[in-house]
Amino acid sequence: MKHTIGFIGGGRVTKILLQGYKNKDVKVEKIIVTDTNKEVLANLERQFPEIEASDAKSAAGQDIVFIALHPPVVMDALELIKNNVKAEATVISLAPKINLPKLSMKLGHVKNLARLIPNPTSYINEGYNPVTFA
């Protein structure tokens, strides 16, 4: 079964995960990435032509949603997208300081919540990534 993936934020950690997927030839139905910086999106599209640049609400409507934002803007972003996240989606926060109760406060209808702190070695499919699940 192929899934769809949405990245809210297209920075360094998104690039690390996308490269890891590419290295392992991970097949998904669709990958949507959003970022407020158009240059960041353009660079990602050049490096990963399989992605689709779109808005946060579109990215939030996917099967797996990565919240790849800096902690100060996460809660506002969650407020913006909460109605677009499907109840059966898996939402994974990559932001430090945003714990599972905070995620649940904004996305109470979503039961599949996780936090993941990717290490740069994910870029070469090595190392480990600490993860915790709700």
Structure write-up:
The protein has one domain (4-133): NAD(P)-binding Rossmann-like Domain (Rossmann fold, 3-Layer(aba) Sandwich), CATH 3.40.50. The chain is built from five helices and seven strands, in the order βαβαβαβαβαββ. By secondary structure, it is α/β, with parallel strands linked by helices. The longest helix has 12 residues, at 12-23. It has a seven-stranded mixed β-sheet, with helices on both faces.
CATH class: Alpha Beta
What percent of the residues sit in helical stretches (DSSP H or I)? Answer: 25-40%
CATH homologous superfamily assignment: NAD(P)-binding Rossmann-like Domain
Number of strands: 7
| Corresponding CATH architecture | 3-Layer(aba) Sandwich
Task: Give the tally of structural domains.
Answer: 1
How much of the residues is beta strand, in percent?
15-25%
| Mean pLDDT reading | 93
Overall SS class: alpha/beta
pLDDT < 50 stretches: none
How would the global form be characterised? Answer: globular
Tally of individual helices: 5
> Per CATH, what is the topology?
Rossmann fold
Nutshell version of this structure?
This protein is α/β, with parallel strands linked by helices and 134 residues long. The protein has five helices and seven strands, in the order βαβαβαβαβαββ.
List the keywords.
134 residues, alpha/beta, Rossmann fold, 7-stranded mixed beta sheet, 5 helices, 7 strands
Could you give the topology of this structure?
Elements: E1 4-8, H1 12-23, E2 30-34, H2 38-47, E3 51-53, H3 56-60, E4 64-67, H4 71-81, E5 90-93, H5 100-106, E6 112-116, E7 131-133
